[in-house]
Amino acid sequence: MFVRDLIVSAPGKAILHGEHAVVHGKVALAVSLNLRTYLKLKSTNNGKVCVCLPNINTFLSWDLKDLKKILTHSSDKRAEVKRLDTELVKRIHEFVGVTNGNLDTCNMATLSFLYIYLSLFGAGELPGVTMSVWSELPTGAGLGSSAAYSVCLAAALLSASGAISSQLKEGDHTGRWSQEDLELINSWAFQGEMIIHGNPSGVDNAVGTWGGMLRFLAGKIIPLSRVPLLRILLTNTKVPRSTKVLVAKVKDKINKFPSIMNPLLDSVDAVSCTCEKVLVEMTCEPITGEHYSILEELIDINQHHLNVMGVGHPALDVLCRVTLARGLHSKLTGAGGGGCGITLLRPETDSSVVQSTVQELKDCGFDCWETSIGGPGVQEHSPLSVKQDIVRILDSY
Fold first, then answer.
1. Any catalytic annotation for residue 150?
2. Is residue 146 annotated as part of the catalytic site, yes or no?
3. What are the tens digits of pLDDT across the range 362-397?
């Protein structure tokens, strides 16, 4: 069986407002990052499936006849399946030789690929393919790198299997799928995330699928169709943290001081809702400096809230001081306790200010990128629409 060659990409994600409060029933706003993961799928006739993940130094190959042995039954194509097939997951674990206590980044990426590949092609002849992935997103930084990977897997393999059709017309550089196809991509990406994370919220893969901004409240995810594209600095303090520990820390503080913390959570909720209102306004009327002033104030307010919750960190304080000295406003994004922060850039911010800020943050030992938020979700690409250095990487495997 031969499948068509294709290139897809999906964005990472950042939490704009609502970290930790969302766990307690408040609104969170998640936005796409214009740092993307790219996947190239290439048909081969050598009887093998090859996976090349240079970001994590992973290069694997299996014979098709060995992969076929994982499948114990034949059925119709299961493109509509929404529940995880735990028996198939177990057999893939055994095939790869992974135990539950040995799920490193390489193993998680391998398991999710094999699960979606075998689920979509297992009813017929398994195709020989080489899958190459390159990401602009750092792993383990809370920026949705695993979800972007899962979304790319789902889109590429669903397209290759014929479950969704190509939306890349002749002469187009990029193509987007229909709402129905995006929902199918998202459902399969969520299964990939379940294999990687166990019990994901679904926010990260939804951002990777639809892009833009999502409103998350009490488990319900609502994509907002139009949001402005905002320039930001994204800074990784490279301070490791445990999301589980930080979530528990906030919960303990709420239990200890409910009369103090519950109004704080209500205030965070109001920040998220006010920000959403301003961003919607910015798509419906001329953007003014006042819009940016409000967004900056909300960033400052929310950062103070997060410090009161106890999820700040000295490294994040350094980020806020360095940027504020240049008139820029920053907050943590994600779990806190280190990790990443975002800095809003006004359209008129001079490039020299941006460059000097980035350099000073790098001098502090941080990684820093100028990027944007609010860009498109998963896309299919012609090679001409992808950065040439990324094309060279994808073509080298």
1. no
2. yes
3. 999 999 999 999 989 999 998 888 888 888 888 887
